[in-house]
Design brief:
heterodimer, A: 623 residues, alpha/beta, Rossmann fold, five-stranded mixed β-sheet, 23 strands, 38% helix, B: 208 residues, Pyruvate-ferredoxin Oxidoreductase, domain 3, 6 strands
Chain lengths: 623, 208
């Protein structure tokens, strides 16, 4: 990140964005981590302090954006970044910020996830730009991600508007060669000037500001018409294509394999929609393909423009069934769609089909994961209490892998915090036992209101808070319950049990999930208590602990099976399901020393009745 | 630049299981390409997908825009785990070569009894019958001999280089390692690259 001007680097899109923040002199950045946006925070965590930028992992996206908005109002360039569904959480503030406008540049990044590699939906967040009447910038690769970002900050300041900066997984997680630009010193201190008639959205104020917003939108249309982010590649073909974002890459990679000449209008500032630019492109071509991932966001505007301008150009897109509305556009999807739309041969290459069923390899909870021990204890408790009709309301985090065998303890997951929210409803309308699971970070993010509602309305449910002291799924960001923040600065830890007790929960117990007996007994007590019960299963994430041991140069112990004691029940392999266990070619249970994390949970008789699992003398994973 | 299919590009799928270091391998290869003055792009999948699941990286050198390799245009499947190398063949075309580590990591679906681990000899025969060039090397053993069990991924980078799929110089790879790894790891990792390259040259019957 300290590269000098004109140096080239091999950067991930998200790393290029972090570099862009340094080049734009941004003084305040905030996020709630979410894939595919998280690596921006990973870099800022390391470099923000030295760069003079303030950076925090906020409790959720709404708070992150509100903090960034206040920084901008105080004259500090600011940046809030999140995954696409995070903008749903922040949308209340986001839409209002169109009305207030900004003082110093404010850019909001939404990392969308076509094909849902790590998300619950593939919503197209370009619509948020239209909803909020704010400009939309869409880069296609790491170089553009950096360059467009600094341009977006200038636009934001020039027009006094927040800018929506939208990437997708294939842009944020694409690594490519980036030429660095000059860095600007960051200014992280500002001063607020009162201006309530522009900043305090009472109805009387908002009513006036709406007119300003519409007027500013007119100015932004002119910006889009002349933006260097919008350009035409190629000249003179009868066929044109309008595209943006990652779909541009796939289009360009597909065209050589279709064998036709196509002029391409690449939109980097796609909203407000540049009608003049697109209109003249439509006039120059007899056929225009609209190549955009997910929703027909550009296509509706192109078709409306053609109708209003009385153009007879043939437009081919999703709305007439030529391009798919689901999943990312690979070069093959684009090639086949274009070939079919134009009546050309697809030119498929015959693939090697070896015709073998290969076993799937779904993601699993790691060896040593405390969540596995918690799920195991809950499963035992339910079995011992003969509770068979149970609704498991799960949430967003590593514990979502409770979905898979053998636990299958994820019946419903909607969004961040929905475990407790849906548990409210299940416990109201059914007589079934309701068990909700949520992580520590997710609990603070969106779980608190659901728990308030449950206590207030006298629900009967068990909430298990899986407290591993980190936000593990996205890269180990600190939740509010730990004593450090971004850049390892000191933070005030917030006690989950104190918060829960203060809400009026009667049964609250903190357990160590590595202690199966203790966890089992607490879960059983909680399940037989009335009202809302909370069990806090607290044990640091195994990966975080391993990293700490490695840093200290301390060894990680390894366990092995004493074959003469093993009864062959396979409980460890099938029910506890730690990935370190396997059955060898002779059908004997063994532990893979490379995978064993030394947690020792499997040595307890609740997992291994004959106590055949012991610490290995020889094999201790070195630092 | 001479791509394996003479298209001015090289397309490599680097596949394995979370934690095997195939993203780092891709970074070293891309950095080497940058140092050699070439364009390189790659895709990474992060988050939920990496916890013991398949981690597949598309890596491309040359005149390309996006990181996704079109179907059938994979020049090399670089496998870090043998089952995943076979799985990646569903994107392979008639001119794909496979170089994989012979390491086996049992998927959880086999452990919990949902699926069976395939017969590798049978799979090998099927692949041979399709005319695919398939090389399995004992990367963990070579890595250990190079000085660290954790350098298997650099053995595979060396294999890709030794087999002629990386149009870069050995010094570009050395310098890329220096840019991305701690100094204490340079020597073992460079040795792992060289030993991987030697091993594949030996298997392919290439003279140094």
């Amino acid at each position: 990140m300290n590269a000098g001007e004109n140096e080239t680097l091999f950067l991930l899109g998200n790393e290029a964005i972090a570099r862009g923040l340094l080049e734009a002199g941004v003084g305040f950045a905030a996020t709630y981590p979410g894939t595919p946006s998280s690596e921006v925070g990973e870099v800022l965590n390391d470099v923000a302090g030295d760069a003079g930028m303030y950076f925090e992992f906020s409790v959720n996206e709404k708070v992150a954006l509100e903090g960034a908005a206040a920084a901008s109002m105080s004259g500090v360039r600011s940046f809030a970044f999140m995954k696409h569904v995070g903008l749903n959480v922040a949308s209340d503030a986001f839409i209002s910020l169109g009305y207030t406008g900004v003082r110093a540049g404010l850019v909001v990044m939404s990392a969308d996830d076509p094909s849902m590699y790590s998300s619950q939906n593939e919503q197209d967040n370009r619509h948020y730009a239209e909803l909020a009447w704010v400009p939309l910038v869409e880069p296609s690769n790491p170089q553009e991600a950096k360059d467009f970002l600094t341009w977006a900050f200038d636009l934001s300041e020039r027009r006094g508007t927040p800018v929506l900066f939208r990437t997708t997984t294939r842009v944020s997680h694409m690594r490519g060669i980036v030429r660095a630009g000059p860095r600007k010193p960051a200014n992280s201190r500002g001063s607020f000037r009162r201006d309530p008639w522009h900043l305090s959205l009472l109805p009387a104020v908002a009513r006036r500001l709406k007119e300003d917003l519409v007027k500013r939108y007119g100015d932004l249309k002119l910006e889009a018409e002349s933006s260097p982010l919008n350009r035409v590649i190629g000249r003179g073909s009868e066929i044109g294509a309008i595209t943006s974002s990652a779909a541009y890459n796939s289009l360009m990679d597909a065209l050589p394999h279709i064998g036709i000449d196509v002029d391409v209008l690449k939109l980097g500032m796609s909203y407000p929609f540049p009608q003049g630019l697109v209109g003249s492109f439509l006039r120059d071509h007899g056929t225009v393909l609209i190549v955009e991932e997910l929703d027909p966001f550009l296509e509706t505007k192109v078709r409306a423009l053609a109708q209003m301008s009385g153009l007879g150009v043939r437009i081919l897109g999703k709305m007439d069934g030529h391009f798919p509305s689901s999943y990312e556009y690979t070069p093959d999807v684009v090639r086949r769609s274009i070939a079919d739309a134009l009546g050309l041969p697809r030119g498929d290459i015959p693939l090697v089909e070896i015709g073998a069923e290969l076993p799937p390899r779904p993601p699993v909870m790691c060896s040593g994961c405390p969540h596995r021990a918690t799920f195991y204890a809950v499963a035992l408790a339910l079995r011992q209490l003969k509770l068979r009709s149970v609704v498991f309301a799960n949430d967003i985090g590593c514990y979502g892998m409770g979905f898979y065998k053998p636990f299958e303890m994820d019946d419903v997951t909607l969004c961040m915090g929905s475990s407790i929210g849906t548990a409210n409803g299940f416990s109201q309308v059914t007589d079934q036992q309701v068990v909700a699971f949520i992580g520590d970070s997710t609990f603070f993010h969106a779980g608190l209101p659901g728990l308030v509602n449950a206590v207030h309305n006298n629900r009967r449910l068990l909430l298990v808070i899986m407290d591993n002291s980190t936000t593990a799924m996205t890269g180990f960001e600190p939740p509010p319950s730990v004593s450090y923040e971004a850049g390892n600065r000191a933070a005030t830890p917030i006690s989950i049990e104190n918060v829960v007790r203060a809400m009026g929960v009667n049964y609250v117990k903190v357990v160590d999930p590595y202690d199966l007996r203790g966890t089992l007994s607490a879960v059983k007590e909680a399940l037989t208590s009335d009202g809302v019960s909370v069990v806090i299963a607290r044990r640091e994430c195994a990966l975080l602990r391993d990293a700490e041991l490695r840093r200290k140069g301390e060894p990680i112990p390894v366990y092995e099976v004493e074959q003469d004691k093993c009864a062959g029940c396979l409980n460890c392999v099938e029910d506890f399901s730690c990935p370190s266990f396997y059955t060898n070619d002779e059908g004997l249970v063994e532990i893979d020393a490379n995978l064993c994390d030394g947690c020792g949970v499997c040595t307890q008789r609740l997992v291994c009745p004959p106590a055949a699992i012991v610490k290995s003398d020889g094999e201790v994973k070195g630092a | 630049m001479s791509g394996a299919q003479g298209r001015g590009q090289v397309n490599i799928v680097i596949t394995g299981v979370g934690g095997q270091g195939n993203v780092t391998a891709g970074i070293i290869m891309g950095e080497a390409a940058r140092l050699a003055g070439l364009n390189a792009v790659m895709s990474e999948i992060h988050g939920l997908a990496q916890r013991g699941g398949v981690v597949s990286v598309d890596f491309r050198i040359g005149d390309v825009y996006g990181p996704i390799i079109p179907e059938g245009r994979v020049d090399l499947v670089l496998g870090f785990e043998i089952l995943e190398a076979y799985r990646a063949l569903d994107r392979a075309g008639p001119s794909t070569t496979v170089i994989t580590s012979s390491e086996r990591i049992t998927p959880s679906s086999v452990n919990v009894g949902d699926a069976k681990y395939p017969d590798l000899e049978e799979l090998g025969a099927k692949v041979a019958s399709r005319g695919i060039r398939f090389y399995a090397i004992n990367a963990p053993a070579i890595a250990l001999a190079a000085g660290s069990a954790l350098s298997s991924n650099m053995v595979m980078v060396g294999a890709a280089y030794g087999a002629g799929f990386l149009p870069v110089g050995i010094d570009d790879i050395r310098n890329a390692i220096k840019l991305h790894l701690r100094e204490t790891l340079w020597e073992t990792n460079m040795r792992a690259v060289e030993m991987g390259a030697d091993e594949i040259r030996r298997m392919m019957g290439r003279v140094r």
